[in-house]
TrEMBL record:
The keyword Cell membrane does not apply. Catalyzes the isomerization of sedoheptulose 7-phosphate in D-glycero-D-manno-heptose 7-phosphate. This is Phosphoheptose isomerase. InterPro entries: GmhA/DiaA (IPR035461), Phosphoheptose_Isoase (IPR004515), SIS_dom (IPR001347), SIS_dom_sf (IPR046348), SIS_GmhA/DiaA_subfam (IPR050099). Zn(2+) binds at H62, E66, Q176, H184. Substrate binds at N53, G54, G55, E66, N95, D96, T121, T122, S123, S126, Q176.
């Protein structure tokens, strides 16, 4: 394996992150305010995603784990649910209805007005994530969307009150790397609002 090839991955990742710094800081700050406001009012955050290689599903679970457990500082657990984790629910819905409904059925069952849906799709085109957004709107929830590749069809279903964090890249790996950094920013921002700046 070429060391230069490995180093190029680091350079490419850093370049996308630096470009994203300029465009994503404001929507990430808005997402932190929205999520903290929901949590402070006793609401919850539901997270979903799949992705062709599973990265978005893992990101949804990572985010929920850091809210329920902790990010970097000790604090009480915060209510978050990853809609990607219950295999019985996922397979029952996919089998009895369709794979497109695996998240929207859960949003209908678990979501309440004032809750937030964190919807993750690198392409912006995942049908089951788009269906979850539509269900979230019907349940009077706010959506925070993480995408890339220009946002895809996600832009057609988001409302004016939703927050779209679209990574300026067309490469799935680079988008996922910025999604992970964004998730860490969200967790850190929520903690800072809850516990104060450290």
């Amino acid at each position: 394996m070429s060391v230069e090839r490995i180093q190029q991955h680091f350079r490419d990742s850093a370049a996308v992150k630096l470009e994203a710094l300029e465009t994503l800081s404001m929507p990430i700050a808005a997402a932190i305010d929205t999520m903290f406001g929901a949590l402070a009012n006793g609401s919850r955050i539901l997270a979903c995603g799949n992705g062709g290689n599973g990265g978005s599903a893992a990101d949804a679970q990572h985010f929920a784990a850091e809210l329920i457990g902790r990010f970097e500082r000790e604090r009480p657990g915060l209510p978050a649910i990853a809609l990607t984790t219950d295999t019985s629910v996922l397979t029952a819905i996919a089998n009895d209805y369709s794979f497109e409904q695996i998240f929207s059925k859960q949003v209908w069952a678990l979501g309440q007005p004032g809750d937030v849906l964190l919807a993750i799709t690198t392409s912006g085109n995942s049908a089951n994530v788009l269906a979850a957004i539509e269900a979230a709107h019907e349940r009077e929830m706010i959506v925070v969307a993480l995408t890339g590749k220009g946002g895809g069809r996600m832009q057609e279903v988001l409302s004016d009150t939703d927050i779209h964090i679209c990574v300026p890249s067309d490469r799935t790996a680079r988008i996922q790397e910025v999604h992970l950094l964004t998730i860490h920013c969200l967790c850190d921002g929520i903690d800072a609002m809850l516990l104060g700046e450290d």
